[in-house]
């Protein structure tokens, strides 16, 4: 069975099927015109052939027609066409003396061929409607014979039934229709194949763009046709420009953060002076504003450092390798010697996420788990249906359900006094928001806290060595 026409693709603007439909309509119209022209040409040639046949028959009749010894019309020989002897066979001849037939073929039986107006009828075949609506091709000629010194005029008439021509035209039209139908199918298939091959490079560009968007490729690469190469070059330049813009924005955000550190440090010193002078309330208000400013700067700086899912050409992340590196850093942090760090992420698991963004998210989540875990922190990941779910579990006291939303959205601190800024979960959630994801906080099985999130990803299989 052939492929069904994807009308949805036509409605959505499929270039391939639009061009195929246009080619099919053009081919059908052209072949219909060609078929009509061929039929008309065949009919014209057929009529010429019939006229030539009538001329031959008229000459044959004229050569055989004589006046006998009694001055009566007679034939000197029989004709070759056996249809003259079969009644109403479609092949006829007649000899008329004035308005009355004096000789006629047996095929006419008891009928007579009507005589036409003699003006302008000789030497050219014409059509008449005869017995029971039958159409005949007729050719006439006047002859003069002399008997006993007296000349006499006769009219010779030959005719062929039009039905034979109609049968030939119908048969020819059927054959032409079948042949043109086969040709049309072949041409439409050829047009579709040409379009498929011609547009295939564009499909390749689309596949590579999807890989760039997923982070599997950094740039469009490969050999493209001359007409498509400028497009791929412009797309690569656009990717370069976007990445350069993101890089410069991150650098400006870093410069801003460094620029604010000195004023905030000075303000912290001024708050200390107020406290030493006994103005405790003013000092506390100033320290509170300083903390707010630092929290705001850190949160916005984390956002500026993030690439996000919309960054073209974003590199993918090797989840297992990056988690092991972050766990190595955690093991050198305070309280880490009291905690067992473990990871159950399979090698080859890839996240469609910038490595710096993943490090920002996972680093904050691991640091939060370090502050609260009693003895164990576990990182796990699983891939299903094009997404990877990452889960961090600790055996600490957990987070109360009523505080989970507030901590993620506002970044309020849940850390022990003197440790952390309370921004870790909020920053992680902000970065995940750039990928259309968010943190999910739950109670861990057996006690503790379980924080998870899901992003697009895939599992790479090891190449076969067989």
Number of strands: 14
- Derived from helix and strand composition plus strand pairing, the structural class reads alpha+beta
What is the typical, i.e. mean, pLDDT? Answer: 82
Distance between the termini: 37 Å
Name the shape in a single word: rod-shaped
Please compute the radius of gyration using only Cα atoms. 50 Å
pLDDT under 50 segments (min length 5)?
1-5, 416-420
- Helix percent reads 40-55%
Task: Sketch the topology as an H/E string, one letter per element.
Answer: HHEEEEEEEHHHEHEEHEEHHEE
The biggest beta sheet is recorded as: 7 strands, mixed
- The total of helices stands at 9
**Number of separate domains:** 3
Write a concise keyword list for the protein shown above.
14 strands; Heat Shock Protein 90; 466 residues; 50% helix; five-stranded antiparallel beta sheet; alpha+beta; 3 domains
